[in-house]
Amino acid sequence: MPDPDELVADALAAVRGTDVRQAERQLDRLMVGTGAADGTTAVDTALLRRLIRGVARLWPRGWQPADLDRLTTRRLGARSARLVRDALAAQRREQAGPVPAWWDEQLRELAAEVWWDDDRSVLAGWSAREGLDRVDALRTAVDTLVLVESLPPIAVLRPPPGTTGAAATGRPTGAARSGSGMLERVRALLAKAESTTFPAEAEALTAKAQELIARHSIDEALLAAGADRGDLPGGVRLGTDAPYAGAKALLVQEVAAANRCEAVWSDDLGFATVLGWPADLVAVELLYTSLLVQATAAMLRGRAERRPGAGRRTRVWDESFLNAFALRIGERLRATTDAADRAAAETAGPERLLPVLAARGAAVRERLDTLFPGVTRHRLSVRDAEGWSSGTSAADRASLDVGGGPPPRQVPGRPDPR
């Protein structure tokens, strides 16, 4: 009588290979099960247990629940992602040692929770929810497990559950402690910017949000400088999925640079890693999410304004538009930050503020060198002059000067228009 763990192992090995017929034969063996009365249930349990072990092994390798969910959705689709969420919930139930608050927050955002009474019924319950017959459910589960077990190590941004420092990372960040009111104002401004149909109003609202963010960043820097704290810069990962992944990575880079952060793009994994101080990371995430919505809306408006007969190269035009938009917005966000720095230096004194900002910037760059020693720069080419011009204009219709009125990872660089 075959062992269920051996059946699962054989099926995984066959799927990883190149013999399609062998993979189907092993899937048939999973369908049959062990031959015992509860043989299929034993196979389901073995699949779930191996999936739980697989996700648990990812945490010391830098992965977080949100990362795993995003990549599973990207590679295999929402159905597999929902199976992974069930495995996340089951694995969380078994976690020993301290679990940071941000970890449980990610699980809540994913709605990863235990909905079953018996682990032996998880796969059957999941397949019923998805409307799958048994053979398709087994095929999906095996493909999901193959993906989970094949993921490479990535940068460890925060101590995972059960490790030294995990409990400490559960305390609120500086942004959450002292900037919740500011963040609500920023969110409100960005929501208005996303909803308006007037580009000038959208950019003015975004500029005001950046001004508030820059002032808060300076306040946080001065507050931290006056306290005896051993904090290190942290990091977040932002999705850069197709289409136009390179343009999205460039937008991350520009927003990060305007907010004293560094960004590294992992194209093969579909995300950019942003390194910086807590308040600045919150700002980058908020701005990137909003500006991506605004850029997409501006791109669609720009398409409608194109001259007749120019629609044969829509994809090339779109990409050039988004690249230009990202660069121009980045320039204006940095100008807003620079203006806030000058105003703060006049108030606090340059001899007090500038060394603090320089030290924080050096700490972020040191963190970058530690986590990504092999980083390379990537030049983005612009292949449509009309799209470039339209994207620049879309980002330049209103002044943002509100103060005066696995493969090598890449840091997106400035494109080379040609």
TrEMBL record:
Domain DUF2786: residue ranges: 182-220
Region (Disordered): 158-178, 384-418
Compositionally biased residues, Low complexity: 163-177
UniProt xrefs under InterPro entries: DUF2786 (IPR024498)
Record-given protein name: DUF2786 domain-containing protein
Source organism: Micromonospora coriariae
Organism phylogeny: Bacteria, Bacillati, Actinomycetota, Actinomycetes, Micromonosporales
